[in-house]
């Protein structure tokens, strides 16, 4: 069963730090680009960061660039998001997600694809 | 970045009736080399993560009821629920994967009238 499970969320003061983790199972983790996507309370989905299958390529939304760092440990089938200098506007549920594409009856990692599955999410609250 | 705009923001439909949600992209997400639209739809029920419904604009994910259908091409897309069931109450999101960043619409909240 393909599954992603996030952990590490919680309440933190402005300027503080948190490290989120995402444990993957049921698929070859090292084959896939992985993403962090967040959803502020009552708001839409916002892509935050992604990392290539090897970890050599990372990309960040402008809103978190310079403050967040994405990483992965393929030996542990785990994805991470180190969040520093947190702000109130970073308050959100953070989801990890796998990007894939299906065509011709098979599914695989690709540069352009949709997100499936998603983890259940972990809530980060930044407040004094 | 490609901007995705959904309409309406919220929608109330009677049980058994048709529900239609629109999604418009600021530029075409049709890739000419394979004639595929790089657009997906997700369903998000309260307290749950998004669940993939449709990809390539019109291909239903395995296990998704056939009352859900996706249509459109280029910049204008629709998600249609042919006969609304109580379990379809959710927020629906469109997402383009034509270019990075893979942007989402703002979501459409579907309720029972």
Describe the structure.
- The complex is a heterodimer of chains A (128) and B (113).
- Chain A is mainly β.
- Helix content of chain A is 0%, strand content 54%.
- Chain A is built from no helices and 12 strands.
- In chain A, the strands form 2 sheets. In chain A, strands 2, 4, 5, 6, 9, 10, 11 and 12 form an 8-stranded mixed β-sheet that branches. Chain A has a 4-stranded antiparallel β-sheet with strand order 1-3-8-7, with no helix packed on it.
- In chain A, a hairpin with a 4-residue loop joins strand 7 and strand 8.
- The termini of chain A are far apart.
- With 113 residues, chain B is an all-beta fold.
- Chain B has no helices and 12 strands.
- The model of chain B has no long low-confidence stretch (mean pLDDT 97).
Low-confidence stretches of chain A: none
* Major sheet size, sense and barrel closure of chain A: 8 strands, mixed
Query: Strand sequence of the main sheet of chain B, in spatial order?
Result: 2-12-11-6-7-8
Report the order of strands and helices of chain A.
Answer: EEEEEEEEEEEE
Report low-confidence residues of chain B grouped into runs of 5 or more.
none
Tell me about the largest β-sheet of chain B.
Answer: 6 strands, mixed
Shape of chain A: elongated
The total of helices of chain A stands at: 0
What is the count of β-strands of chain A? 12
Span from first to last CA of chain A? 40 Å
β-strand amount of chain B: over 45%
DSSP strand tally of chain B:
12
Mean pLDDT of chain A: 96
């Amino acid at each position: 069963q393909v599954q992603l499970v996030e952990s590490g969320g919680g309440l933190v003061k402005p300027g503080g730090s948190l490290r989120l983790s995402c444990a993957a199972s049921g698929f070859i983790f090292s084959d896939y680009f992985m993403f962090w996507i967040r959803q502020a309370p009552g708001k839409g989905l916002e892509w935050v960061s992604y990392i290539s299958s090897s970890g050599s390529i990372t990309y960040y939304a402008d809103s978190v660039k310079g403050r967040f760092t994405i990483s992965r440990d393929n030996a542990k089938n785990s994805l991470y998001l180190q969040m520093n200098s947190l702000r109130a506007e970073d308050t959100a549920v953070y989801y990890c997600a796998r990007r894939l594409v299906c065509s011709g009856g098979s599914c695989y990692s690709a540069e352009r694809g949709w997100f499936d599955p998603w983890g259940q999410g972990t809530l980060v609250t930044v407040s004094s | 970045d490609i901007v995705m705009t959904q309409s309406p923001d919220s929608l109330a439909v009677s049980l058994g009736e048709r529900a239609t949600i629109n999604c418009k992209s600021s530029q075409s997400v049709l890739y000419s080399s394979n004639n595929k639209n790089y657009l997906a739809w997700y369903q998000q029920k309260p307290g749950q993560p998004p669940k993939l419904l449709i990809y390539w604009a019109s291909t239903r994910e395995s296990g998704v009821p056939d009352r859900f259908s996706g249509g459109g091409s280029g910049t204008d897309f629709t998600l249609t629920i042919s006969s609304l069931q109580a379990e379809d109450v959710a927020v629906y999101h469109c997402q383009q994967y034509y270019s990075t960043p893979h942007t989402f619409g703002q979501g459409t909240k579907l309720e029972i009238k």
